Amino acid sequence: MNEKTDDIILAFESSADETSAAVVKNGNTILSNVVATQIASHQRFGGIVPEVASRHHLEWINRVTEEALTKAGINDPERQLSAVAATYGPGLVGSLLVGLMAGKTFAMVHHLPFIAVNHLAGHISAANFVKATVYPALAIMVSGGHTELLWMEKENTFQIIGTTLDDAAGEAFDKVGRILGLKYPAGKEIQEMAGHGKAVIKFPIAHTEDDFDFSFSGLKSSVLNYVHHHEQVSEEFNRNDVAASFQKAVVEAITEKSRLAIEKFQPKQLLLGGGVAANLALRTAFENLSKEYKIELTEAPIKLSGDNAAMIGAAAYLNYKQRLFAPLDLNVDPSLNFARM
Ligand SMILES: Nc1ncnc2c1ncn2[C@@H]1O[C@H](COP(=O)(O)OP(=O)(O)OP(=O)(O)O)[C@@H](O)[C@H]1O
Ligand SMILES: [Mg+2]
Questions:
Q1: Whose CA is nearest to atom 27 of ligand 1?
Q2: Is the CB of residue 125 below 6 angstroms from any atom belonging to ligand 1?
Q3: Are 271 and 132 in contact (CB under 8 A)?
Q4: In the chain, how many domains are there?
Q5: What's the pLDDT score for residue 3?
Q6: What whole-number distance in Å separates Cα of residue 166 and Cα of residue 171?
Q7: Same domain, 219 and 325
Q8: Domain of residue 293, residue span
């Protein structure tokens, strides 16, 4: 039984289409991490339907909370827990509200401090389950809604060095998936198709003027043009080659911008997080970059790359150490982001 020699946090995540509750010890040990996914409900629409998502969260939030507490052996929250945390942005307003309300209510009822977590800090903190970070660090945050190079001068500080000017990397995977007739979300399936294909098609990699920013919409358009052209003239094409060529272009764009950032900022550590961090080609490219520059790389475990509350618990612990608690009248912030450097 914990006598608060350990700091145990109950965390909630509901920013998009995963309803999740987790119990995390000392920011680096998962006692439970329950994730209810709604992907099947959104697949026929080819993306997340916000109203459907919030209804699902409402249906699932109590069940995932109970399961997370039971699995972690928490039967006396006030005595066993140190704090309660929830994602307050960025994400869909109706979805965020469910997890935030659950977190604030649980904190209030059990007289526990409440911690508000930035979802993107959560994705990066998934790496803390592997090992502690050395600073300054360069974090590469690649997800369904964001693609950011972040400078972390010290723990729990994030400055945007570069970001996407249009689509996020995961969004590009999902849009190309739709062009290829795949189900949403398509990242994993494109990776599998790429494994059976050859990257022989030259899709352009955007070179934005600002050194560290990304652009993926031109790449998506050229995949669309390639596929439409071949369909219109009834010419056979290899869909696996399209997947492999597209994936290679995305991986190159992300690694090349990261290389520039490494050379300019000289980080002591690289962190890779976000849903797209599950991509094996991207992981291999970063493992090579890490060897080349002799900078240690910590990747979010594949199982914790997508949305889950354990990563929110890991990020919350960094706030907990600094006693950064949030008031219970805090509202969601759907477009929350970090500041530019
Ligand atoms: N193996 C993979 N290769 C490439 N992309 C992947 C892979 N696995 C998942 N993805 C992509 O990751 C994205 C989901 O990531 P995540 O859950 O972090 O996004 P999100 O939470 O919707 O967005 P954000 O975190 O920006 O709010 C989807 O676009 C999905 O296609
Ligand atoms: Mg996410």
A1: 145
A2: no
A3: no
A4: 2
A5: 56
A6: 10
A7: no
A8: 133-299
